[in-house]
Every structure is written in structure tokens, then in C-alpha cells.
Amino acid sequence: MNNIDTMSINAIRVLAADAVQKAKSGHPGLPLGCAAIAYDIWANEMKHNPANPDWANRDRFILSGGHGSTLLYSLLHLFGYGLTKEDMMQFRQLDSLTPGHPEYRHTKGVEATTGPLGAGMAMAVGMAMSEEHLAAKFNKENYPVVDHYTYVLGGDGCMMEGISYEAFSLAGTLGLSKLIVFYDSNKISIEGDTDIAFTEDVLKRFEAFHFQTIVVEDGNNIEEISNAVKAAKADTNRPSLILCKTQIGYGCPAKQGKASAHGEPLGDDNVVALKENIGWPSTEPFFVPEEVYAHYNEIAAKKAEDETAWNKMFAEYCSAYPEMKEAWEKEFDLDVAKELIDNEEFWSFEDKPEATRNLSGVILNKLKNYVPSLIGGAADLAPSTKTYLNNEGDFSKDNRLGRNLHFGVRELAMAAIGNGMVLHGLRAYVSTFFVFSDYMKPMARLSSLMRIPTTFVWTHDSIGVGEDGPTHEPIEQLAMYRAMPNFHIFRPADATETIAAWYSAVTSKETPTALVLTRQNLPQLAGSSKEALKGAYVLEDSNKETPDAIIIATGSEVELAVAAKAELLKEGVDVRVVSMPCMDIFEEQSKEYKESILPSAVRKRVAVEALIGYGWEKYVGLDGTIVSMNGFGASAPAGTLFKKFGFTTENVVASVKSIL
């Protein structure tokens, strides 16, 4: 390794240590231990162009161990992605471009928000799947317009988390040979040596996953690291795990190899000792020699040539295959609203009782023709969740063109993989039973935080699941997801509302959407309309200027509200029925619109929903009441359960009367 490489690697270490020390907060251990690995990947292996971080055919790099964010920030600074030295000095400070963990959309060059350990590993699998799918769709002989690798770096914690097991099991099954996983094996976790809780043979585990496994004995030897990458790329049938033996906190005499290097500043004296130990020319904070900057600039200029060559090839490709140019533009065009909003075929449905999960399946198979990037699947439940795209084939090791994804029973990884595919530019949806969305929550949260439009299809939405009993009957899940910022969750009542939910999902640009769908048949409601796109609307109104009361309902309970209105009218009580398929979107409407739907003058309100009532208080107020679940369900036919728990016309009528 020549001197400029050594200096360039140490620049990463110094910047990372100084940033953490100035913030008096952070994790210096990973950046110090992995600096050589990161340098080799970014300088010698990766295709990327700092002048255009969004270049379509760039290699992707995900730092799954997001706590080591100063490693990534140092790279972004040194390679010229727009992070300044002042940004490094503002690490972990309010409104800085260098937050505690890397955040997608916030900092240029960050491919995914990471922090929850293992999440980056699974998102990388989604990106690698996307690359394979797009390559199969668009590449022509002599025109490999989609041809890039996905690199992901994580440590022992990422390997301990179950999400990595799930994701890499699928990656091996699919033979994602352009996925290269770097395992920072320093055998240290926060509580000490990993032997206290983690003694398995990770290499054998990955061999069982059908990965190629490679060991780098010295994680500071860039020649050895580079040879490992060459071996990884040479295997075109399997993804690769490169286990790099490293030392946490490398270079700091008092901290190297110790758990204390993980998550606390080194200390001023130790930062000075680090710099002296590695032969750094100055102890001044954030000092980087000009020759190091010049070296990084030279590398960045060469990296830009990769995109220049690709742009030339892509122009020739578009000329030779004009139909592919059109397909490419349509693939990555997120603005499909204009094609769908007034499309009669899209909004049409059969006027008969139907489960909203079945309606969703019909709509999905219409959408596939309008949204070519639509791709997705279920956690081994597509026949039940109705999420299979007919005549589109199954994505597999032998068929990369398939648009149906088989995730196996792996809900957590499925959600993260879906996020990775959306980050790569596809319109991905993922699906399971609503009660099992509990397994997906951390990754759904990441989609909200990253502001990406992943779609979640969750069926079997209530006690209507019936005989499967309380283990399969969701109760508190809807309230949980409603509590999450930047997350739209629809519980539609009929075909029109289900179409509206899908329209909202595929036209969203920065918000994930969930559809919560019934197993049981529901009638088509005469008053339902595209107004569902506003989150709530008047389904059936009172004849009075000021209604006697308002019944608000979602999903299968809207039918009850309509029936209750009819019964109440017989007794001279005239109420308004409001359908609220998406509380989140309703909250985004103007004050004027919300007042027009739920006028403040009408304080007598009843909310009806066959899930926990938490969250409805703000709509019913002190003078209202809620017909909801107050505990878990039971095992019996759905009709029996709805009666047992009070979801009947008679009980809704009685609830309205009780507050009048």
C-alpha cells in the first residue's frame, strides 16, 4: 500500500474521530476499524460519480451499521459529494447535514436511512433484486444499461439481528450475485466480547444460505480487500460474503479492540494519541493535507468518466431501440395520476358484495398495465392476500423478469426489501395478514422516515377473521400505524374506496401507504365516491341543516352505520354518516374541509370500528362515544363474533340514542 493510500485511509479515521469528539457524542469504533475497507470500495471498486449522486447505473453502498455514520460522512466529504468540513464539524447538531445516523433524502450520497441494525442488509437485498429485474427488462446485446453492484457493510450486530437471517436466506435462494456483503468482524459489541452472546460460525451460516464466503485476514490491507472483491465479482451464481477481520477503534492505543471504542468519544488526549500513532502530520482538529484532497479529487474525476461512458452508451441504446427509451422513461415516471384519475376502466367494478381483499386483487391487476415498475408479493400468502399479478411470472433465479415476488415467511425482511426496491426506483408492494404487520413495523417506520412510497397490503383486517381466533385477529394495529407520522393507512368500505386507496398509493411520492382489507364480503355503497381520496367524506347526509348526530365509521362497519341511520330515521332521528377510510389523509385537509365534514356544532358523535377505539376520542369528543373492541377477539364464525362484540345495527342505534 503506497503512502497516499495510507494517508487517504487515515484521513477517514481522523475526520471521524474529530467529528465524534467535537460533538461529544457518537461511535468512533466502526469508522476507525473499517476505514481501509470503505476506502477500497469507494476508491477502487465502486462505480459512482460524486458530481451526480443520482446516476442511474451507479453502484450502491449501504452502511448497515448506521451508528458508524462518520465513516460515510468522511467519504462523502473527501470525495466531493457536497459535505463541507463545516458540515463535519456540525456532526449530530440541529439541522446539520451530518445527523447521528445516515438519513436518505437529507444528505446527498446516502442511499438509505440506517440505524436499526440489520435493516441496511435487507434493503441492500431489495436493491440487488431491483438491479437484476431492471437488467433483464432493459439490457440488450452490447448495451448493458443496467449493470451495477450493491455493497453493504455491517458488523456483528447486523448479523445477530434476525432480519439479516431472513434477507440473506432469500438472497442466496435467488442467487443475487451482484450483492456483496462486507462483514466487519471485530468480535466486539457494546457489552464486551461477542462470545458472551454470539458464538456461531457465520461463514458456515452463509454457506448454508448459498453464498460464496471469502475471508480477509487483515481488514487494513486494501490489496487483500480488493482481491476479495474481484473474487466476489467472479462468482456469477451466488451473492458473496466478505468477512473482514478488523479491530474496533483501530489506531487509538487506549481504545483499540475494546468495547469502549464503540459508542463514546475517544477523549481529547486519545484523539491526539491516535493521530500520533498513525503518523498524522497535525493534531489540529479536522486537518487534512492538501495532497490527500487532491488524491480524492483525482479519483472522483476518474469516477465521473464511468458515467460519461455510460451516457454515451445509453444515447446509442436509445437511438438503436427507441421503444426501449420510451419504456425506460415510463418505468421511472412516478406521475401516473393523470392516467388514472378520470380513467373509467380503472374506477369500474362489479356491483355485487365482495371482500375488499378480492377487489384489491382485481385493481392490482389493472394497475400493472399502467405502472410498469409495479412489483411485489407476499410473505407466502398471495392466494389469501390476493396480491398475485396474473401472467407476469415469478421473480426467481431463473426468471428475473417476473413481477411476482415470493418472500417466504419473512415479514420483517420483506418490508425492508420492499423499501430497498422503492429506493432503487421501483413501485414495490408487500403483503401479509394485518395482525402480522407487527413483524413489519420497524421497516414500515423506516419507509415513513425516508419518505418513500412503499405500499403495504394487509388483509384479514379485524375480528372478521373469525375461526382463526385472537392470534390472527388484529385489534391494536390500526391505532399503532395511525400514530406513525407520514404514513397513510386506508381501511376501505367498498370497491370505490379500495380503488381510491390504490390510486393514493401509486401516486404517492413521499408517503408510504397501507391498505387494510377484509376477508368477508361487503356491499357496494351507493354514496361512496372519489371523495375518499380526502380521507373522509359524507357518505349519507342528514336532511336537517344540523344533523342530530354523526356516525363515523371505517371498513366493514360503514355498512352498519348506514343501516343504523335508516333505523334511526324511522324514530325521527336524522344523522349524518361519515366514512373515514384514511384518518391520516383527512388530517391533512384544510380546516374548512374538515369542518364541512365534521361540523363543530354537532357534538353528538359515534365512531364505529371493529378494532381498538384508541385515537377516536379526538373525533367524538366528550359528548360522543365509540363502538369498538376493548380486548382481544375469540375463535368463532365472523358473524357470531360481530354480534358478541356489539357490531350490530341495534347496538349502533342504541349507542347513538345513548348520547342524544
From TrEMBL:
Catalytic activity: D-sedoheptulose 7-phosphate + D-glyceraldehyde 3-phosphate = aldehydo-D-ribose 5-phosphate + D-xylulose 5-phosphate
EC number: 2.2.1.1
UniProt-listed GO biological process terms: pentose-phosphate shunt
Domain of life from the UniProt record: Bacteria
Cofactor: binding comment: Binds 1 Mg(2+) ion per subunit. Can also utilize other divalent metal cations, such as Ca(2+), Mn(2+) and Co(2+). Binds 1 thiamine pyrophosphate per subunit. During the reaction, the substrate forms a covalent intermediate with the cofactor.
GO molecular function, one term: metal ion binding
Active-site residues per Swiss-Prot or TrEMBL entry: E411
One Pfam family per UniProt: Transket_pyr
InterPro entries xref list: THDP-binding (IPR029061), Transketo_C/PFOR_II (IPR009014), Transketolase-like_C_2 (IPR055152), Transketolase-like_Pyr-bd (IPR005475), Transketolase_bac-like (IPR005478), Transketolase_BS (IPR020826), Transketolase_CS (IPR049557), Transketolase_fam (IPR033247)
Keywords: Calcium, Magnesium, Metal-binding, Thiamine pyrophosphate, Transferase
Residue ranges of domain Transketolase-like pyrimidine-binding in the record: 354-524
Swiss-Prot/TrEMBL cofactor(s): Mg(2+); Co(2+); Mn(2+); thiamine diphosphate
Residues binding Mg(2+), per UniProt: D156, N186, I188
PROSITE patterns per record: TRANSKETOLASE_1 (PS00801), TRANSKETOLASE_2 (PS00802)
Site (Important for catalytic activity) residue list: H27, H262
Similarity comment: Belongs to the transketolase family.
Function: Catalyzes the transfer of a two-carbon ketol group from a ketose donor to an aldose acceptor, via a covalent intermediate with the cofactor thiamine pyrophosphate.
UniProt-recorded name of the protein: Transketolase
Organism, scientific name: Lachnoclostridium phytofermentans (strain ATCC 700394 / DSM 18823 / ISDg) (Clostridium phytofermentans)
Source taxonomy: Bacteria, Bacillati, Bacillota, Clostridia, Lachnospirales
